[in-house]
């Protein structure tokens, strides 16, 4: 069971996973060894699965943000999943969902031309509905 200190540690690490243990311990009002022990406990319990970075997609040149609802043409999903794996640089997330669609793809593309090329390949495997993100 997580207590308030564990929740504060998780909150601080989610804001900045590169924070030093010294800084983290000051923010959660514990000693550095106690903070390190709690972080290790959270890692061992599988609550903290890893540390990552947040990449600015616009600065990387990915200007087109799209959500694509995927409707399978058949019950055989492997060709679609292989295509998505091959298109990994553009795919942010491939959610398996319930409802009108089978999957919801979140993607970023450097241009509409690259998006169009992606959709042409995608249409060989599935039907889809495209939504472009205008703003957050």
Automatic annotation (TrEMBL):
Does this entry carry the keyword Metal-binding?
no
Q: Which residues form the HTH asnC-type domain?
A: 2-63
A Pfam family this chain is assigned to: HTH_24
Q: Which SMART domains match?
A: HTH_ASNC
Task: Give the UniProt keywords, A-Z.
Answer: DNA-binding, Transcription, Transcription regulation
Q: Which domain of life is it from?
A: Bacteria
InterPro entries found in the cross-reference section: ArsR-like_HTH, AsnC-type_HTH_dom, Dimeric_a/b-barrel, Tscrpt_reg_AsnC-like, Tscrpt_reg_AsnC/Lrp_C, WH-like_DNA-bd_sf, WH_DNA-bd_sf
Q: What PANTHER family does its record include?
A: HTH-TYPE TRANSCRIPTIONAL REGULATOR LRPB, LEUCINE-RESPONSIVE REGULATORY PROTEIN
The name this protein goes by in its record: Lrp/AsnC family transcriptional regulator
What organism is recorded for this protein? Planococcus liqunii
